[in-house]
Amino acid sequence: MSVKKFKFVSPGVFLSEVDNSQIPKEQPTVGPLIVGRTQFGPALKPVTVQSFSEFVETFGNPVAGSRGGDVWRDGNHQGPTYGAYAAQAYLKAGVGPITFVRLLGKQNELATAAGTAGWDNTGTVTGKDGGAYGLVLMPTASGVLTGSAVAGHLAAIWYMENGTIELSGTLANTSTTATGTYGLFKTNANSELVAQIKSTTSSTIVHKTAFNFTDNSRKFIREVFNTNPQLVNSAVVKTTDLKNGEQYYWLGESFEDNIQKQVDDGNLVLSTANAMIVALGEVDGDPSRGEMKQSYQSSKSGWFFSQDITTNAAAYSPANMQRLFQVIARDAGENAQKTLKISIENIKASNSLDNQYGTFDLLVRRAIDTDNVVKLVERFSNLNLNPASENYIGLKIGDKYKEYDSTQSRLREYGQYDNNSKYIRISISEDVDAGLTDPVFLPFGVDGPEIPATVTVVGSGSLASPATAPTVAGGKSNIVVSSSVAAHSMTAMDQSYNAQGYTQHTCSMAWPQVTCRLSASDGGMGNPHDAFFGAQSATRISSNGSTAFDRGWGDLLTAFPNALVGTLDYSWRFTLDDIITGSATTAYWSSGSRKNGTSATAVGGDYEKILDAGYNSFTSPLYNGFDGLNIKEIEPFRNSGMEETTEFTNYAVNTIQQALNTVADPEVIEFNLLAIPGLTNAKLTQQMISVCEERADSLAVLDLQDVYVPFTETTDSFKDRIQTPDTCVNTLRARGLNSSYACTYYPWVQIRDTINARRLWAPPSVVALGVMANSEARSKLWFAPAGFNRGGLTEGSAGIPVTGLTYKLTSKERDTLYTANVNPIASFPSEGIVVFGQKTLQATRSALDRINVRRLMIYIKKEVSRIAATLLFDQNVQVTWDRFTSKVNPFLASIQTELGLTEFRVILDNTTTTPDLVDQNIMYAKIFLKPARSIEFIAVDFVITRSGASFDD
Questions:
Q1: CA distance 294 to 329
Q2: How far apart are the C-alpha atoms of 626 and 662, rounded to whole Å?
Q3: Domain 32-109+629-852 class in CATH
C-alpha cells in the first residue's frame, strides 16, 4: 500500500494490512476428447463431464456387447461401446475431466443414395421384394367378404430382407386349409395364427410357427420370431449357423397391448378373428415403412396449445387453438421417447387484473412410471408465458441448440435462452415469444403423435388373375398398403379361396396409437384429482385398471420416413376443454365434448370451470426420435464398412468427419488428447492426426489396422482375426506417418467390465488413455506413461481391470514394434501386463519422438499462451515485458523443480522485440527449453575381478 494512502495530521503510528497471499485462480483442468457410441446422450456435440458418475448420467453405462435379447425394442447392446470404456478408464484412473462426442448417424448434404444414413429393408435380391409387411386382425363379419369395410387393427410388422412371409391355416368362412401372403385366415380356438417364412431365392419354408399376442405365453409373437435385425447381415453374422430363417427377416413393432385393448373393449374376439398380411408402403410413390434412410433426429412432443376463450363452444376445434410451445429432447435419437414423458400440472388462471398471465408446472417424468407413483426426473414450477417475466418458460427451461454448419464445418448455436434442463429444451411459438398472444392463454392441450391415416384395404384375386395384391380405397394411402407388389404370387391358397366364391375381402385399417386416459379414476387412483389426463404409458389402463408399463410403448412412438412429413395425421388431440365432470368424484375425457356442448368448459361457459374442479394436469409422450444408424450392423461404424468410401457415399465416414470438424478449432473446445477407440480406418485416423497437428495442443491416440479385427467386423474365427506384429508394422510403414502429435499401441487387450460382470476385448487406446490419466494423477503428465511404475495394467494403472492380450509379444517382437514407433503392451511372468513404450509416431529422431516430451510441450504452450493472452492490447513496453517474464519464469521453474525440465531460459527484451516489431504492434519472446528425458535403456557392467584386486583401482 502506498504511503499516499495515509492521512498524516498529527504524530502517530499508522498500520495497514496488505494481503498478497491470495492463491491465483486455477485454470480449468484439460483432459482428453473421446469420440464414440453410447447408450444415449447429446449427439455430435462436445460435452464435458468431470466424473464417471456424471458420464453415466449423461451418456449411460458402457455396453459390453453380445447381450442378445430383443434388439428391436431394447436397442443395440450387441456391439461394445469402446469410447465409453475409454471414458471410464480415464475418469477412474485420473482426476478428469473428459469431453465426449457421441456418434449417431448423419448423412452429408450431398450424399449419394449409398451415403444416406439410417437403414432400409427394400430387399437385396434382384427382382425380389423386401420391405415391411403388416398383420391386420379384424372381427369375423360378413362384410369382410362382401366388400363392406369392417374395423381392422394393425397387430405387428415384419421386415423382410430376402424372404417372404405367409399365413397358413384355415381360410376365413371356410374349412379349407391353405397358405399364402394375401389371403384371409381365421384364428384357431387357442387365439393363435400360423405364419411361415420362405427363402426368396428357393421358396423353401425356413421357419413355420404358431403365435399369439399373450405376452406371458411361450408362443408370444416376440418369442417365436426373430427380433434382431443384425442377423440378416451376412457380412458380420454367419448365416449358415442360424436356424429358423433369422437371416431372412426380423419382427419389428408388435402392438399386443393395442390388440388386447380392442379385446377388452369388445371390438375383437381373438379366438374367432380373421387375419391377413398387407405390404406397408410404396403406394402413390410414398416410401415403404422399411425405408428409414435419414439422419438422426431428436424426439419431441406435439405442440401444446391453448384453451378456448370464446363462448362459441359449438365452433370449437383443437386444431384452431393457439400453438404455444413444443418440448424437444436434448438426448438425441430414440432413447428419450422410450424413457421419458412430459406432464403439465398445476395449471392456474391469474386472479390479478394487473398480470393476466396464469401459471403452470412442467414435469419431466420416467415413461415407466404411473400416475399412482410418479417418478420425477425434473420439475419446473410456476412457469408462465410472459416473455418479460423471470418465470417465462423459455428463460426457466431454455431453448438453445446447436446445428452443424457444413459451409463453415463447425457447430453454430441458435436460440435465446440458456438451457437449464439436462433433458429437454423448449421450442416456443414466435407469437408467444413476441408477446403477441392473449395473456390469459395457458397450456390446455397437446397434439398426439403423428401416424398414417386410416385407410380401406381391399383384397382381390381370381383364378384368371392370381397376382393381384391388396389395394387401397379412399383416404390417404401413406405407407399403409402396397398396390404394386410384383414378386409375391397368389398361391394355391388364393385359388382355393376364390374357388369358394369369394372374390374380395375388405377392412379399414387404423394405425395403433398411444392410449389416453378416459376416466380420472382409471388405474385405481385414490384421489381422481391426482390423475394426469392425456397419454398413458401403462398397459390398458382405461379398460382393466392395470398400471404395468406397456413394453410396446416405444413401438407406438417410432419415427416415420421424413418423406411422409406433412402427410401424417395426429393420432389424437387432447385438451382439458374436452373433459366432462360427471360427478364430484371423477371426470371423463371425451374427444369432441366441448363442441357438442357436454364438457365442463362448455357447460360452465368458462375455461376456469375445469381448473376449479381440480382437473389441471395432463401428459404427452415424446416421439419421432431416430438414431440414423443402420440397425442391421452390430457396429454401425465398423471399419470394414467404411473402406474405399467417402463422406458422400458413406454416412459413417461423414459422421466421424463431422465430429472431428466440430472440435478442430482450439478456441471452441480444449483438450490435450484425442481418441476414437476402435477406429482403424486409415483416412479417418489421418484426419485425427491432422486435427491435432493443426491445433498443436493435443496428442492423437490411434488404433491401427492389422492388429485385431473384432467380431463386429467379420465372420472370421477369433484365431483368424489376430494379426502379427510384422503385419501391423508393414501396414503402418506403408502409410509413411511422421508426426509427434500421434501415438499408437499393440495389441488389443482383454478388460473386465465390473459394471456388467463381463470380459471383452478392447482396443489399446482405451487403456492407453487410462495409463496417461494415472501417470498424471500419480506424478505429472511429463513423466513417461509406461513401465512398471506407471504403466502396469495388471496393477490397475489403466483405471479399468486388464486381464489378457490378443497377442503375447516376445522380446524380439517388442523390438520390431518399437523400431516402427508402435508402443508394445507386453506381458511378463512376474510383473503382469505392462505398457512398455512411449514413442510418438515421429520418424525423425528428436526429443519430441517421446510421449512425455510431447505432452510436456503441449502443456507448456497452453499455459504460456494463457499468460500471454492477459497482455493483449496492453502497452508494448518494458513494463509489460517484465510482467510476462515474471509469470513465465516461475511457471517454468516449477516444472523444472518437478523434473519436467533440466534447464530453461526466457528472453524478452529489445533484442527480440525490436523497434521495428514494436511499430508492428508485435511482442516477441523466445523460450529455450531442455526437456528431461525418461530412462528407457539401462546398461550395467558387471565386472568380475580376482580375489586380490581392489575396487578402488
A1: 18
A2: 21
A3: alpha beta
- Report how far residue 359's alpha carbon sits from residue 347's, in angstroms, rounded to the nearest whole number: 6
CB 439 within 8 A of CB 357: yes
Nearest CA-CA partner of 230 in 216, 250, 204: 250
CA distance 668 to 610: 50
- How many CB atoms neighbour CB 31 within 10 A? 26
**Is residue 837 within 8 Å of residue 823, measured between CB atoms?**
yes
φ, ψ of residue 829 in degrees (nearest 5): -55, -40
Q: Of 178, 137, 782, whose CA–CA distance to 496 is shortest? A: 178
Contact 675, 86 (CB under 8 A): yes
C-beta atoms surrounding 817 within 10 Å = 27
- Could you write out the three-class secondary structure of 381-432? EEEECCCCCCCEHHHHHCCCEEEEECCCCEEEEECCCCCCCCCEEEEECHHH
Pairing of strands 673-675, 32-36: parallel
CA-to-CA separations, 944 to 576, 938, 950, in angstroms, rounded: 98, 19, 12
Of 170, 153, 154, which Cα lies nearest the Cα of 268?
153
Task: Name the residue type at position 321.
Answer: M
Quick check: bond before 747 cis, omega within 30?
yes
713: number of Cβ within 10 Å? 19
Asked if 393 and 400 count as a contact pair (C-beta separation under 8 A), the reply is no
- Rounded to 5 degrees, what angle do the CA atoms 81, 83, 86 make? 120
Cβ burial, residue 378 (10 Å; 0-12/13-18/19+): middle
CA distances from 760 to 80, 116, 644, 757, 807 (A): 8, 31, 29, 10, 15
Going along 349-383, which residue ranges are E strands? 359-366, 376-383
Q: What is the CA radius of gyration of the chain?
A: 34
Q: Is 675 helix (H, G, I), strand (E, B) or coil?
A: strand
CA-CA distance, 649 to 116, in Å (whole number)?
Answer: 8
CA 614 to mean position of chain CA atoms = 39
Decide: helix, strand or coil at residue 287: coil
Strands (E) across 106-239 are located at 119-120, 132-138, 150-160, 163-170, 177-180, 185-186, 193-199, 205-211
Backbone angles phi, psi at 884, to 5 degrees: -65, -50
- Cα–Cα dist 481/488, whole Å: 14
Query: Which of helix, strand or coil describes residue 279?
Result: strand
* pLDDT, tens digit, 9 for 90 and up, residues 660-708: 999 999 989 999 999 999 999 999 999 999 999 999 999 999 999 999 9
Kindly list the domain boundaries of the chain, sorted by start residue: 32-109+629-852, 120-292+452-510, 300-448+514-621, 880-953
| C-alpha cell read off for 705 | 489396422
Instruction: Name the residue with cell 465390473.
Output: 754
What is the percent of the chain where pLDDT is above 90? Answer: 70
Secondary structure of residue 185 in the 3-state scheme? strand
Contact 400, 421 (CB under 8 A): no
pTM, two decimals, is 0.90
**Model pLDDT, residue 477:** 36
Name residue, grid cell 404370387: 489
Q: Give the helix, strand, coil percentages of the chain, each rounded to 5.
A: 25, 25, 50
CA 857 to chain centre: 36
Distance CA 666, CA 378 (A): 34
Q: How far apart are CA 682 and CA 640, in angstroms?
A: 11
The answer to whether 82 and 678 have CB atoms below 8 angstroms apart is yes
DSSP assignment string, 838-891: -B-B--S-SGGGBHHHHHHHHHHHHHHHHHHHTTTTS--SHHHHHHHHHHHHHH
Q: Report which DSSP code applies to 809.
A: P
| pLDDT tens readout for residues 507-556 | 777 889 999 999 998 888 888 899 999 999 987 654 455 667 888 999 99
Q: Which residues contact 226 (CB under 8 A, 6 or more apart)?
A: 244, 245, 246, 249, 250, 251
